[in-house]
Design a protein that fits this description.
heterotrimer, A mainly beta (460), B alpha+beta (168), C alpha+beta (261), A: 460 residues, mainly beta, Rossmann fold, Neuraminidase, 2 domains, six-stranded mixed beta sheet, four-stranded antiparallel beta sheet, 4 helices, 31 strands, 13% helix, B: 168 residues, alpha+beta, 60s Ribosomal Protein L30, Chain: A, four-stranded mixed beta sheet, 14% strand, elongated
Chain lengths: 460, 168, 261
């Protein structure tokens, strides 16, 4: 009894002492200056809500208004279109507050390299984009892009590209990429393409077609005609092929579609259900999942065909996936061998398989970020939500909060996640994007319903 | 006097206690249970051994249902599968495909695998009843082919199914 | 044990006890239910910058009273009040010029003479007020009779002055400082140093002393963070700071730029 009361006494004394010790502020990272230095020390804290960066994007100028295949009204009108593409890229991005060419005065060709600061300083834009386009005799276009700091009156960065007339939009995406990466520090991603499944029809009789488009929705093209259901496409890293699942033969099989030639080849001749195609970062290997007698495993096969598939998992249960790390050394996949869908990592040859998801609920569809620092996946706990975690399974964060968001894939810069959202009841699917910080969730404009989005790398 | 106090106390207790009962969770409707014997083919009806004939004969028992994430064949499923096996024994030239389906409340690729598991479970049971394995094939449609279009447990329970289809 | 003690209660008593217990439980449940509701959130007060001088200076920094202040002189009354000039405010009736011989009442002292205009004026104009105070009526306030020493604003540069100087610089920097966005970007801290000219303009370019808080996720934003901090200083210049203390603010050694919501 005495011991007990002594213990209580000690605890009562110890707790405030511990609290006192914890209450000491952490030592400042900056040492205060020595007495004889005499300079001032202080802290300036930015505690305002995130402010988007104001940026003015007037129309691109041209040295001479010449006819061009890129625009029926000549290079002058093309300059306006180029400005508009840059404006839309940066507007949808959430970091900027751009003003586009339709609301701004148009600079002349000489002002592109020597801006008329007076015109731009009264506005709310802190940054200014100037560009020019020149048509050469052979039809090719030279596009230059300049970024200026209006308040400091300095040039920040400049670059130029030569493109064919048909690819004029790519030059504008390159300009948007230049501005974006200079002002955010992130890698570019606008000059890339997205493959996805276009959906039409009622919920119990959906027509699903393979389609591709630019990252901003332009240059849209249907690849299949919808007679057989197409699912889960993936661009090859060099953009030459798309691997996808089709029910062409009455059951799920993986086809590799060569975009240039239009040819389709089968990944495997097996009669079993095969699905979930994935490319390795070097484009030489394709991973896929095959269901045999109720058991599904992950296999890999040479992308050039002719090799025999190698089985990577053999646990009883459903193993689906996976996604390579950017250096190609590891694969993240999902498996229900523990009783429910969870996420596992293994070496690229199938060894060393270990579970990394331990946060409750189920975890599925893992995708490794091109930057290697995060894995995006679908977290199932009641609703289906898009979430990210580190490759060791820590730091789990939800990025969305809706009834059914699934199948996240990454933009090429590893900072934007793309997924599709299914509406409750109607089952209508739409593609959405969200930043890795969880901000700026926005819908991608597609001609009809859309699902299974996959992003290709930045075009060189 | 005591009785009045008692009544007042009881009344106030009832007024204070505002308990709300939880409504019972909806149970999925039981699948079709009409036991219909295999009717002798009539002249004007579908050809015997065809899918149309099979469907009419089965009258709903060509489909078995599953619980969420499950793929086991329970007693009701077994009864339906016995009838399917009986039909297939009757028409030994008929070949059949077992389709596996899932509800929409899961990720697409896992559902393709789960559908295959369900189809495989049904096929295995049919094989154990004596149907030759090479007469049966399986296909999985995952969540791609729902028959009930709602987003509620009632619809989902109808979509978690394995359907046997006779190939003409 | 409890059951045995209830045995000798009458039936009514047992019933009453049971009902009372049930009523208590119901009351507690009702209270718990109420508490579960979110209380109305209090309105968030506006932000206020507070700078604390947490050091006690060893030297007095209070203004020194002058050793020999000039004796306060009573204002000299002029024998005749100055003529009234029409003030800017339009008045219907001009007030009569006070004549010392009009009334039998003793002439009221000059300071009590009311200003003739009914509307209050921010600064009394002596010409129109009709007072008898001369232009020199402030002469002699403060200062010594023998010297014009009016005393110094502060005896030394202490902690309080440093705090207010720091606050002035921060206040001028803050509108131009916005940290870059990104994953873990709020952890970045940049420390700059720069020199200032006597007129408050920048001497040269701010230089980065050190950066901290960099991890793999926010590394791409680290140089951007430093660039934005330098930009904030360049945009805030020229600084508006008291010239008397130029020696104290001519060199900024450790200006720490961070982000905190």
């Amino acid at each position: 009894m005495k011991l007990f009361s002594l213990l209580i006494f000690a605890i009562v004394l110890g707790v405030p002492a511990a609290a006192q010790a914890q209450g000491q502020p952490a030592p400042a990272e900056v040492a205060p200056p020595a007495e004889d230095e005499g300079g001032l020390s202080f802290t300036v804290t930015d505690d305002s809500a995130w402010q988007d960066l104001g940026i003015a994007i007037p129309a691109f100028a041209t040295n001479a208004d010449r006819p061009t295949a890129a625009n029926s009204q000549g290079t002058g009108a093309l300059g306006v279109e180029l400005g508009r593409v840059v404006f839309n890229d940066l507007r949808n991005n959430g970091l900027f507050r751009p003003v586009g060419p339709d609301s701004l005065p148009r600079p002349n060709y000489a002002q592109i390299t020597a801006p008329a600061w007076g015109t731009w300083q009264g506005r709310s834009a802190e940054m200014l984009v100037h560009g020019y386009v020149r048509a050469a005799d052979d039809g090719r276009l030279t596009v230059g892009c300049y970024l200026y700091d209006v308040q400091l009156q300095q040039e920040l960065v400049r670059e130029g590209w030569v493109v064919s007339a048909a690819e004029w939009r790519r030059a504008a995406h390159k300009c948007a990429d230049l501005v974006y990466s200079r002002l955010s520090g992130e890698s570019p991603f606008f000059d890339s393409k997205i493959a996805y499944i276009a959906e039409t029809g009622p919920k119990d009789n959906r027509v699903k077609r393979l389609a591709i488009m630019d990252s901003d929705g332009a240059n849209h093209r249907f690849i299949t005609n919808g007679q057989s259901t197409a699912l889960t496409p993936r661009y090859s890293p060099d953009y030459s092929k798309i691997a996808y699942v089709s029910y062409l033969n009455g059951y799920a099989r993986i086809f590799v579609y060569d975009i240039g030639s239009g040819n389709q080849t089968l990944v495997t001749q097996s009669q079993n259900t095969t699905f979930a195609p994935r490319w390795s970062p070097d484009g030489r290997t394709i991973l896929y999942s095959m269901a045999v007698a109720g058991n599904t495993d992950v296999y890999r096969v040479s992308a050039s065909g002719g090799g025999s598939p190698q089985r990577l998992t053999d646990a009883p249960g459903i193993d689906v996936g996976g996604s390579y790390s950017p250096d190609g050394s590891r694969i993240v996949f999902e498996s229900d061998r523990s009783g429910s869908q969870q996420i596992y990592v293994m070496d690229a040859n199938g060894g060393n398989q270990r579970r990394i998801s331990f946060f409750g609920g189920r975890a599925a569809t893992p995708e490794w970020s091109p930057r290697g620092d995060q894995i995006a996946f679908t977290h199932i706990a009641g609703d289906l939500r898009v979430a990210v975690m580190t490759p060791s399974g820590g730091g789990m964060r939800h990025l969305t909060n809706s009834w059914q968001d699934e199948a996240p894939t990454w933009a090429p810069n590893g900072r934007i996640v793309q997924f599709f959202r299914t509406a409750r009841g109607s089952g209508e699917a739409s593609i959405w994007q969200v930043d890795l910080t969880g901000r700026n969730e926005r819908r991608l404009n597609t001609p009809v319903g859309a699902s299974d989005p996959a992003w290709g790398p930045v075009l060189p | 006097m005591q009785k009045i106090a008692l009544v007042v106390t009881v009344a106030s207790v009832l007024a204070l206690s505002a308990c709300k009962k939880e409504p019972p969770a909806e149970l999925p409707p039981a699948p079709q249970n009409t036991a219909s014997p295999v009717s002798p083919p009539s002249q004007a009806g579908p050809a015997p051994g065809s899918q149309e004939h099979f469907r009419q004969a089965m009258a709903g028992r060509d489909t078995i249902f599953f619980d969420t994430d499950m793929f086991n064949v329970d007693a009701e499923d077994q009864a339906a599968l016995r009838e399917q096996a009986a039909y297939l024994q009757q028409y030994p030239n008929a070949r059949a495909t077992v389709e596996g389906h899932c509800d929409e409340r899961g990720t697409r690729e896992y559902n393709l695998a789960l559908g295959e598991r369900r189809a495989n479970a049904a096929k295995n049971y049919l094989v154990s009843l004596g149907v030759a394995a090479d007469r049966l094939s399986t296909v999985s449609y995952g969540k791609e082919r729902p028959i009930a279009v709602g987003s509620n447990e009632q619809a989902w329970s109808r979509n978690r199914r394995a359907v046997t289809v006779v190939m003409n | 044990m409890p059951m045995a003690s209830l045995a000798h209660l009458s039936r009514e008593e047992r019933l009453g006890l049971g009902i009372a217990a049930a009523a208590h439980v119901a009351l507690v449940a009702a209270l718990v239910w109420q508490v579960r509701d979110d209380p109305t959130p209090l309105p968030i007060p506006e932000r206020m910058t507070v700078s604390l001088a947490d050091e006690v200076s060893l030297e007095s920094t209070a203004p020194d009273p002058s050793a020999e202040p000039q004796a306060a002189l009573a204002p000299v009354l002029s024998p005749e009040p100055e003529p009234v000039v029409e003030p800017e405010v339009v008045r219907e009736v001009p007030l009569p010029v006070p004549r010392p011989t009009v009334t039998s009442r003793p002439t009221p002292p000059a300071t009590e003479r009311p200003t003739p205009t009914p509307t209050p004026r921010a600064t009394p104009t002596r010409q129109a007020s009709g007072t008898r105070l001369g232009d020199d009526f402030l002469q002699g306030v403060g200062g010594s009779e023998r010297s014009n020493d009016r005393g110094s604003p502060a005896a030394a540069f202490g902690a309080a002055e440093q705090a207010s100087l720091v606050q002035a610089i921060s206040r001028q920097l803050k509108p131009h400082w916005s940290a870059p966005q990104g994953v873990d970007a709020e952890r970045l801290v940049t420390v700059l140093a720069w020199e200032l000219n006597p007129d408050g303009s920048l001497k040269g370019r701010p230089r980065v002393v050190t950066q901290s808080g960099i991890n793999d996720s926010n590394r791409p934003q680290a140089s951007l963070h430093a660039e934005r901090a330098i930009r904030a200083v360049q945009l805030a210049a020229p600084f508006d700071l008291p010239e008397g203390y130029y020696d104290q603010w001519k060199s900024i050694r450790n200006a720490r730029f961070d982000r905190n919501l």
